[in-house]
Amino acid sequence: MIEFSLPNPNGYSQVASLPAGSRLVWTSGQVPVDGAGSVVEGDWAAQTRQVMRNVGAALEAGGATWADVFKLTIYVTDTAELATVRAVRDEFVDLSRPPTSSLVRVAGLVRPEFLIEIEAVAAVAG
């Protein structure tokens, strides 16, 4: 038998499983646009914080909260500011059981001023 073990990740989980009877909530990719439709200009922290607020609002609209999130997919145009992205993300996620995560560096997002886009999947007990 071949033994295999996953490395111990820092800041995310390698695996998540859903409790029986859970209802799934998916968000669309959220971008750094505020409720008035204005792009949040500026640095990585400001854009990431707005995106996370937007994800939170989308979760709420679907009947979920940040505590229900088990998967994040994060799209960035540059990985140089990953520590900033993670620090802001950690203001929102449950650090005692962080979600599984994928980080994807992309050549660009739908608008050139966007630095980051995030989508989430949550499991709501039901």
Tell me what the structure shows.
The chain has helices at 44-61, 82-89, and strands at residues 23-26, 69-76, 100-105, 116-124. The chain is an alpha+beta fold. The longest helix has 18 residues, at 44-61. The protein is globular, with a radius of gyration of 15 Å.
Strand order of the largest sheet: 1-4-2-3
The share of residues in extended strands comes to 15-25%
Poorly predicted residue ranges: none
Radius of gyration: 15 Å
Output mean pLDDT.
Answer: 93
* Major beta sheet summary: 4 strands, mixed
H/I helix tally? 2
- Helicity level: 10-25%
In one word, what is the shape? Answer: globular
The H/E string reads EHEHEE
Highlighted features:
single chain; 4-stranded mixed beta sheet; 2 helices; alpha+beta; 126 residues; globular; 4 strands
List the helices and strands and how they pair.
Blueprint: E1 23-26, H1 44-61, E2 69-76, H2 82-89, E3 100-105, E4 116-124
Parallel strand pairs: 2-3
Antiparallel strand pairs: 1-4, 2-4
Helix pairs in contact: 1-2
